[in-house]
TrEMBL record:
Keywords: Kinase, Transferase. One of its GO terms (molecular function) is kinase activity. InterPro entries: GHMP_kinase_C_sf (IPR036554), HddA/FKP (IPR001174), Ribosomal_Su5_D2-typ_SF (IPR020568), Ribsml_uS5_D2-typ_fold_subgr (IPR014721). The lineage of its organism: Bacteria, Pseudomonadati, Bacteroidota, Flavobacteriia, Flavobacteriales. This is Mevalonate kinase. The keyword Transmembrane helix does not apply. It comes from Wenyingzhuangia fucanilytica.
Length: 308
Protein backbone atom coordinates (compact mmCIF):
# COMPACT_ATOMS: atom_id res chain seq x y z
CA UNK A 1 0.00 0.00 0.00
CA UNK A 2 1.39 3.35 -0.99
CA UNK A 3 -0.94 6.35 -0.76
CA UNK A 4 -0.85 9.47 -2.91
CA UNK A 5 1.56 12.22 -1.90
CA UNK A 6 0.45 15.22 0.13
CA UNK A 7 2.63 18.29 0.18
CA UNK A 8 3.65 20.91 2.73
CA UNK A 9 2.17 24.39 2.54
CA UNK A 10 3.36 27.91 3.22
CA UNK A 11 0.98 30.58 4.45
CA UNK A 12 2.58 33.53 2.67
CA UNK A 13 0.27 36.05 4.31
CA UNK A 14 -2.54 35.98 6.86
CA UNK A 15 -1.11 34.31 9.99
CA UNK A 16 -3.32 35.26 12.96
CA UNK A 17 -5.23 37.72 10.78
CA UNK A 18 -7.30 34.90 9.24
CA UNK A 19 -8.53 34.06 12.74
CA UNK A 20 -10.03 37.56 12.72
CA UNK A 21 -11.29 37.59 9.14
CA UNK A 22 -8.44 39.20 7.20
CA UNK A 23 -7.28 37.86 3.87
CA UNK A 24 -4.83 34.97 3.67
CA UNK A 25 -2.79 33.41 0.88
CA UNK A 26 -1.36 29.88 1.11
CA UNK A 27 0.72 28.09 -1.50
CA UNK A 28 1.81 24.42 -1.78
CA UNK A 29 5.47 23.79 -0.99
CA UNK A 30 6.58 20.68 -2.87
CA UNK A 31 9.99 20.33 -1.21
CA UNK A 32 8.33 18.40 1.63
CA UNK A 33 5.70 15.68 1.36
CA UNK A 34 4.10 12.68 3.06
CA UNK A 35 2.14 9.51 2.21
CA UNK A 36 0.61 6.46 3.90
CA UNK A 37 2.68 3.29 3.84
CA UNK A 38 2.48 -0.19 5.38
CA UNK A 39 5.31 -1.62 7.46
CA UNK A 40 5.93 -5.33 8.01
CA UNK A 41 7.57 -4.40 11.30
CA UNK A 42 6.62 -1.26 13.18
CA UNK A 43 9.58 0.28 14.99
CA UNK A 44 11.15 3.68 15.61
CA UNK A 45 9.47 6.56 13.79
CA UNK A 46 7.11 4.17 11.97
CA UNK A 47 5.80 2.85 15.29
CA UNK A 48 5.45 6.37 16.70
CA UNK A 49 3.50 7.47 13.61
CA UNK A 50 1.21 4.44 13.81
CA UNK A 51 0.53 5.06 17.52
CA UNK A 52 -0.31 8.71 16.82
CA UNK A 53 -2.66 7.63 14.03
CA UNK A 54 -4.40 5.24 16.43
CA UNK A 55 -5.03 8.20 18.78
CA UNK A 56 -6.31 10.19 15.81
CA UNK A 57 -8.59 7.30 14.80
CA UNK A 58 -10.19 7.46 18.28
CA UNK A 59 -10.72 11.21 17.86
CA UNK A 60 -12.40 10.73 14.47
CA UNK A 61 -14.55 7.95 15.88
CA UNK A 62 -15.94 10.37 18.49
CA UNK A 63 -16.26 13.33 16.10
CA UNK A 64 -19.88 14.47 16.27
CA UNK A 65 -20.69 16.04 12.90
CA UNK A 66 -23.05 15.58 9.96
CA UNK A 67 -20.55 17.15 7.56
CA UNK A 68 -18.37 14.09 7.06
CA UNK A 69 -18.24 10.36 7.88
CA UNK A 70 -15.37 7.92 7.52
CA UNK A 71 -14.80 4.27 6.71
CA UNK A 72 -13.59 3.67 10.27
CA UNK A 73 -13.61 -0.13 9.89
CA UNK A 74 -11.10 0.07 7.05
CA UNK A 75 -9.00 2.69 8.86
CA UNK A 76 -8.83 0.56 12.01
CA UNK A 77 -7.87 -2.50 9.92
CA UNK A 78 -5.13 -0.61 8.05
CA UNK A 79 -3.68 0.68 11.33
CA UNK A 80 -3.70 -2.86 12.74
CA UNK A 81 -1.89 -4.00 9.57
CA UNK A 82 0.95 -1.54 10.23
CA UNK A 83 -0.03 1.66 8.43
CA UNK A 84 2.00 4.77 9.20
CA UNK A 85 2.49 8.21 7.63
CA UNK A 86 5.93 8.59 6.10
CA UNK A 87 6.67 12.28 5.91
CA UNK A 88 9.59 14.61 5.20
CA UNK A 89 7.52 17.60 6.42
CA UNK A 90 9.22 18.92 9.58
CA UNK A 91 6.87 19.00 12.58
CA UNK A 92 6.42 22.26 14.49
CA UNK A 93 7.87 24.29 11.63
CA UNK A 94 4.75 26.03 10.34
CA UNK A 95 4.63 24.24 6.99
CA UNK A 96 1.61 22.00 7.55
CA UNK A 97 2.79 18.62 8.84
CA UNK A 98 -0.57 17.87 10.47
CA UNK A 99 -2.42 19.33 7.47
CA UNK A 100 -0.89 16.69 5.20
CA UNK A 101 -2.03 13.88 7.54
CA UNK A 102 -5.58 15.29 7.66
CA UNK A 103 -5.68 15.59 3.85
CA UNK A 104 -4.43 12.01 3.46
CA UNK A 105 -7.00 10.61 5.91
CA UNK A 106 -9.83 12.48 4.16
CA UNK A 107 -8.65 11.33 0.74
CA UNK A 108 -8.38 7.69 1.78
CA UNK A 109 -11.25 7.22 4.24
CA UNK A 110 -13.92 9.93 3.90
CA UNK A 111 -17.23 8.72 2.50
CA UNK A 112 -18.86 10.79 -0.28
CA UNK A 113 -15.78 13.00 -0.35
CA UNK A 114 -15.39 16.12 -2.47
CA UNK A 115 -12.68 15.24 -4.97
CA UNK A 116 -10.04 17.44 -6.56
CA UNK A 117 -11.44 16.55 -10.00
CA UNK A 118 -14.80 18.22 -9.34
CA UNK A 119 -15.78 21.73 -10.27
CA UNK A 120 -14.62 23.29 -7.00
CA UNK A 121 -17.20 25.98 -6.35
CA UNK A 122 -16.76 28.37 -3.42
CA UNK A 123 -19.40 26.40 -1.51
CA UNK A 124 -17.47 23.15 -1.95
CA UNK A 125 -14.19 24.80 -0.94
CA UNK A 126 -15.84 26.27 2.14
CA UNK A 127 -17.34 22.89 3.04
CA UNK A 128 -13.91 21.23 2.67
CA UNK A 129 -12.28 23.96 4.77
CA UNK A 130 -14.90 23.50 7.52
CA UNK A 131 -14.49 19.70 7.52
CA UNK A 132 -10.70 20.01 7.61
CA UNK A 133 -10.94 22.52 10.48
CA UNK A 134 -12.87 19.95 12.53
CA UNK A 135 -10.45 17.18 11.61
CA UNK A 136 -7.30 19.20 12.36
CA UNK A 137 -8.56 20.48 15.73
CA UNK A 138 -7.19 17.22 17.16
CA UNK A 139 -3.67 18.52 16.58
CA UNK A 140 -3.95 22.21 17.53
CA UNK A 141 -7.04 22.74 19.69
CA UNK A 142 -8.54 24.98 16.97
CA UNK A 143 -7.87 25.05 13.23
CA UNK A 144 -8.91 27.19 10.28
CA UNK A 145 -8.73 24.09 8.05
CA UNK A 146 -6.52 25.97 5.61
CA UNK A 147 -3.41 23.76 5.87
CA UNK A 148 -5.22 20.50 5.00
CA UNK A 149 -7.20 22.28 2.26
CA UNK A 150 -3.99 23.44 0.64
CA UNK A 151 -2.36 20.03 0.99
CA UNK A 152 -5.44 18.22 -0.35
CA UNK A 153 -5.89 20.42 -3.42
CA UNK A 154 -2.20 21.25 -3.98
CA UNK A 155 -3.31 24.64 -5.29
CA UNK A 156 -2.73 28.21 -4.08
CA UNK A 157 -5.67 29.19 -1.86
CA UNK A 158 -6.89 32.74 -1.30
CA UNK A 159 -9.00 33.41 1.78
CA UNK A 160 -11.08 36.53 1.29
CA UNK A 161 -12.83 36.01 4.63
CA UNK A 162 -13.94 33.13 6.88
CA UNK A 163 -16.82 32.39 4.52
CA UNK A 164 -15.11 33.08 1.20
CA UNK A 165 -12.24 30.94 -0.12
CA UNK A 166 -11.10 30.32 -3.67
CA UNK A 167 -8.25 28.71 -5.56
CA UNK A 168 -6.13 31.25 -7.42
CA UNK A 169 -3.31 31.39 -9.92
CA UNK A 170 -0.10 33.04 -8.81
CA UNK A 171 2.33 34.79 -11.17
CA UNK A 172 4.93 32.55 -12.80
CA UNK A 173 8.28 32.61 -11.08
CA UNK A 174 10.87 34.86 -12.71
CA UNK A 175 14.65 34.54 -12.70
CA UNK A 176 15.00 37.93 -11.06
CA UNK A 177 16.97 39.00 -8.00
CA UNK A 178 14.02 39.01 -5.60
CA UNK A 179 12.92 36.03 -3.54
CA UNK A 180 10.69 34.59 -0.85
CA UNK A 181 12.68 32.25 1.40
CA UNK A 182 12.50 30.25 4.60
CA UNK A 183 14.90 30.90 7.48
CA UNK A 184 15.40 27.93 9.82
CA UNK A 185 15.18 28.95 13.49
CA UNK A 186 16.48 25.51 14.56
CA UNK A 187 13.67 25.42 17.12
CA UNK A 188 10.35 23.59 17.15
CA UNK A 189 7.31 25.83 17.57
CA UNK A 190 3.98 24.75 19.03
CA UNK A 191 0.80 26.20 17.56
CA UNK A 192 -1.59 25.99 20.51
CA UNK A 193 0.43 28.07 23.05
CA UNK A 194 1.04 30.77 20.41
CA UNK A 195 -2.66 30.95 19.51
CA UNK A 196 -3.48 31.19 23.23
CA UNK A 197 -1.11 34.19 23.57
CA UNK A 198 -2.81 35.81 20.58
CA UNK A 199 -6.30 35.24 22.01
CA UNK A 200 -5.19 36.80 25.31
CA UNK A 201 -3.82 39.82 23.44
CA UNK A 202 -7.14 40.15 21.59
CA UNK A 203 -8.79 41.13 24.89
CA UNK A 204 -6.78 44.37 24.74
CA UNK A 205 -8.52 47.25 22.91
CA UNK A 206 -5.24 48.71 21.65
CA UNK A 207 -4.11 45.39 20.19
CA UNK A 208 -7.45 44.88 18.42
CA UNK A 209 -7.22 48.41 16.98
CA UNK A 210 -3.68 47.75 15.73
CA UNK A 211 -4.80 44.47 14.18
CA UNK A 212 -7.61 46.03 12.14
CA UNK A 213 -5.92 49.36 11.32
CA UNK A 214 -2.38 48.17 10.60
CA UNK A 215 -1.79 44.41 10.51
CA UNK A 216 -4.83 43.47 8.39
CA UNK A 217 -4.43 46.45 6.03
CA UNK A 218 -0.74 45.63 5.35
CA UNK A 219 -1.52 41.91 4.98
CA UNK A 220 -4.31 42.55 2.46
CA UNK A 221 -2.07 44.95 0.51
CA UNK A 222 0.75 42.36 0.39
CA UNK A 223 -1.63 39.73 -1.00
CA UNK A 224 -2.93 42.10 -3.70
CA UNK A 225 0.64 43.09 -4.65
CA UNK A 226 1.80 39.45 -4.80
CA UNK A 227 -1.14 38.24 -6.91
CA UNK A 228 -0.70 41.14 -9.35
CA UNK A 229 3.06 40.61 -9.60
CA UNK A 230 3.86 44.10 -8.27
CA UNK A 231 7.15 43.30 -6.53
CA UNK A 232 8.11 46.92 -5.80
CA UNK A 233 4.88 47.67 -3.92
CA UNK A 234 5.05 44.24 -2.26
CA UNK A 235 8.43 44.88 -0.63
CA UNK A 236 7.21 48.25 0.67
CA UNK A 237 4.17 46.64 2.29
CA UNK A 238 6.11 43.62 3.59
CA UNK A 239 8.48 46.05 5.34
CA UNK A 240 5.50 47.70 7.09
CA UNK A 241 4.11 44.29 8.01
CA UNK A 242 7.47 43.10 9.33
CA UNK A 243 7.71 46.17 11.58
CA UNK A 244 4.17 45.69 12.96
CA UNK A 245 4.91 42.04 13.74
CA UNK A 246 8.17 42.96 15.53
CA UNK A 247 6.38 45.65 17.56
CA UNK A 248 3.26 43.68 18.49
CA UNK A 249 3.94 39.93 18.09
CA UNK A 250 7.28 39.67 19.94
CA UNK A 251 6.28 36.55 21.98
CA UNK A 252 5.79 34.69 18.66
CA UNK A 253 9.34 35.56 17.51
CA UNK A 254 12.13 33.54 19.18
CA UNK A 255 14.17 36.01 21.29
CA UNK A 256 17.44 35.35 19.52
CA UNK A 257 15.86 36.54 16.25
CA UNK A 258 14.59 39.96 17.49
CA UNK A 259 17.84 41.74 16.54
CA UNK A 260 18.08 39.92 13.19
CA UNK A 261 14.48 40.90 12.44
CA UNK A 262 15.25 44.60 13.16
CA UNK A 263 18.48 44.42 11.16
CA UNK A 264 16.48 43.49 8.07
CA UNK A 265 14.08 46.41 8.50
CA UNK A 266 16.91 48.90 9.13
CA UNK A 267 19.16 47.70 6.30
CA UNK A 268 16.42 46.84 3.76
CA UNK A 269 18.47 43.72 2.90
CA UNK A 270 15.52 41.47 3.79
CA UNK A 271 12.23 41.55 5.71
CA UNK A 272 11.09 38.78 8.03
CA UNK A 273 7.58 37.70 8.97
CA UNK A 274 5.97 34.80 10.80
CA UNK A 275 5.50 31.51 8.97
CA UNK A 276 2.42 30.03 10.59
CA UNK A 277 1.97 30.66 14.30
CA UNK A 278 5.65 31.32 15.09
CA UNK A 279 7.40 30.42 18.33
CA UNK A 280 10.05 28.54 16.34
CA UNK A 281 10.12 26.52 13.14
CA UNK A 282 10.58 28.50 9.96
CA UNK A 283 10.56 32.28 9.66
CA UNK A 284 9.46 33.62 6.27
CA UNK A 285 11.77 36.07 4.51
CA UNK A 286 11.37 38.46 1.58
CA UNK A 287 14.29 40.07 -0.22
CA UNK A 288 14.53 42.36 -3.26
CA UNK A 289 18.07 41.00 -3.74
CA UNK A 290 18.38 37.41 -2.52
CA UNK A 291 22.19 37.30 -2.88
CA UNK A 292 22.49 40.36 -0.64
CA UNK A 293 20.10 38.78 1.87
CA UNK A 294 22.17 35.57 1.92
CA UNK A 295 25.30 37.59 2.73
CA UNK A 296 23.46 39.55 5.41
CA UNK A 297 22.10 36.31 6.92
CA UNK A 298 25.37 34.36 6.69
CA UNK A 299 25.44 31.48 9.17
CA UNK A 300 21.70 30.81 8.89
CA UNK A 301 20.08 28.08 6.78
CA UNK A 302 17.86 29.54 4.05
CA UNK A 303 15.54 27.70 1.64
CA UNK A 304 14.33 29.34 -1.55
CA UNK A 305 10.53 29.30 -1.99
CA UNK A 306 9.74 31.70 -4.84
CA UNK A 307 11.69 33.94 -7.26
CA UNK A 308 10.64 37.38 -8.49
Amino acid sequence: MKGPLFYAKILLFGEYGIIKDSKGLAIPYNSYKGAFKLADVLEGDKLKSNQNLVKYFKYLKDLDTDLVSFDLVQLEQDLADGMYFESSIPQGYGVGSSGAIVAAIYDQYAKDKITVLENLTKDKLLQLKTVFGLMESFFHGTSSGLDPLNSYLSLPILIQSKNDVESVGIPYQQNGKGAVFLLDSNMIGETEPMVNIFMKKMKNDGFRKMLSEEFVIHTDACIDNFLHGDAKALFGNVKKLSKVVLDHFKPMIPKQFHALWKKGIDSNDYYLKLCGSGGGGYILGFAADFEKAKTSLAGHRLELVYRF
